[in-house]
Amino acid sequence: MKKTHIILLVLIVGAIAALISLMPKGGADLLSSYETIAGAKEKPGKYVHVIAKLDKTQPIDYDAIKNPNYLSFTAVDTIGGKVKVVYNNAKPDNLEHSERLVMKGKMNGDVFECNEIMMKCPSKYTDDPNRIQESLNKNTN
Question: What is the pLDDT of residues 82-120, one digit of tens each?
């Protein structure tokens, strides 16, 4: 190898080491993957993303007058795992109408302490058979 190639490789390794050292404390926690509720329970205290639905059979605990920054509800994932979720922020709009929730946080005992909730709302572009038939009837006339 030429000297320039060796110097270039050393600079690249140095740059990677510098970027890793500048990563904020707990930065590895930000590089989490999607987990089921059972997977999150196996990693207590570790920052994870959980995809679940709101369990509409269980009550939502939110009182905007008493404490506007406390929301508690039960979430259920696709394989049936359930967990109580505590979100210390205002209740997101349309929480009850969301199709799926992506929750970022960590398990603390039997409670998922959520830092951020992203909602996947039902699509307005779903295939409605009645609307498709009406569109076909209009086009044939």
Answer: 999 999 998 888 888 888 899 999 999 999 999 999 988
E runs forming strands in 9-133: 34-35, 48-54, 61-63, 67-76, 82-87, 100-108, 111-120
The residue segments making up the domain with residue 56 are 31-120
What local confidence, expressed as pLDDT, does residue 99 receive? 84
| Rg of the chain in Å (alpha carbons) | 23
Residue 21 resides in a domain: no
In angstroms, the CA 30 to CA 46 distance is: 10
CB atoms within 10 A of CB 73: 23
Q: How many domains does the chain have?
A: 1
Strands 61-63 and 67-76, how do they pair?
antiparallel
Note whether residue 20 is domain-resident: no
At residue 136, the 3 state secondary structure works out as helix
User: Any idea what the CATH number is for the domain that residue 52 is in?
Assistant: 2.40.50.140
Residues facing residue 50 across a β-bridge: 35, 103
Report the relative pairing of strands 34-35 and 100-108 from DSSP bridges. unpaired
